[in-house]
Amino acid sequence: RTADIDDPREESTGWLFEGEGENLALHSEDFSDASWSALAGLTKTVVASITNPDGSSQTTGFSATGGGQLLRQELTTNAANKILSFWLYVRDFGGVTELRCDYGDGVTQVVDISGVPLNSFVRLSTPALVKGGSDRIDISSSTPTGTFDFSLFGAQFEEAPFATSYIKTVATAITRSEDNVSLPVQGNFRMSEGCISLKASINGFNGTTQALLNIDDGTSDNRIALRLISTNKFKLIIETNNVTQVSVNSIVVSPNTVYDIAINYAENNVKLFINGISGSVDLVAEMPTSLTTVNVASDHADLNLLFGHIKDLRFYDRNLTIGEIKYLGGV
Description:
The chain is built from one helix and 25 strands. The chain is mostly beta strands. It has a seven-stranded antiparallel sheet with strand order 1-2-25-16-21-22-23, with helices on one face. A six-stranded antiparallel sheet has the order 15-24-17-18-19-20, with no helix packed on it. Strand 5 and strand 6 form a beta hairpin. The protein is elongated.
């Protein structure tokens, strides 16, 4: 099954783009379902209605006394290199300061909840680093001094190094389709001189290339490509007739941080600006002049998908001055 396209992808930091993902946790919002086993000391309770992160409401709560194991779901796949995320709503900590997740291998991953505010949902995540011996999600709590009262919402178990946007499931795993935009341009998109300006942030690093922008002719022979590379730097690549003209890197970037990026380009003069500062220059470059497609969040082959946000993407038919670049970036 494929998740419905029924939620907005525009957020405060821009349009959200993510590669394909799959939630392997079943009944992700119904923790009273038989797929979730209530373990020792856990009691289901009816509580005053609370508003879930998606705007719906629930009256299901849990109480645990004495700490220990809380919930378990047996998996149909091994837990290697996956991450569990969920929203936690706490009414009474009862002395609990952390949750512990075991994926069937006896290795405990700890989630610190000491900073979670009372009566408010917070999304938490924890990795599964190795294959579970029993292949399961097992959530437990530290030993409290009283009663730990809480609610849960939106369990997600996915193969990724960081938690992506939520995918609702019921009886089966659900797949979310990838996000990207491809814009065909009428005639030649002549890029012999100009400026590309955008705001972008990366949600997380997965050790592979993530494409932010790829302007090309349908191949990799002629292109202007801006991407995140495995060393966590932005990289600008310009190729003309299958010959690399420009290959320059930025400084190391941080996840969940908005960067103002500008690319001034012309024959034998290409500059990459990050937050109004020119850090990379190439003075020997023949620009491609027959580019016909703008790919956002992927390359020409629909690969190297972005997990991040892009906002305020602009194209200019001339180089911008440093003052204009700083103005666009709010510097």
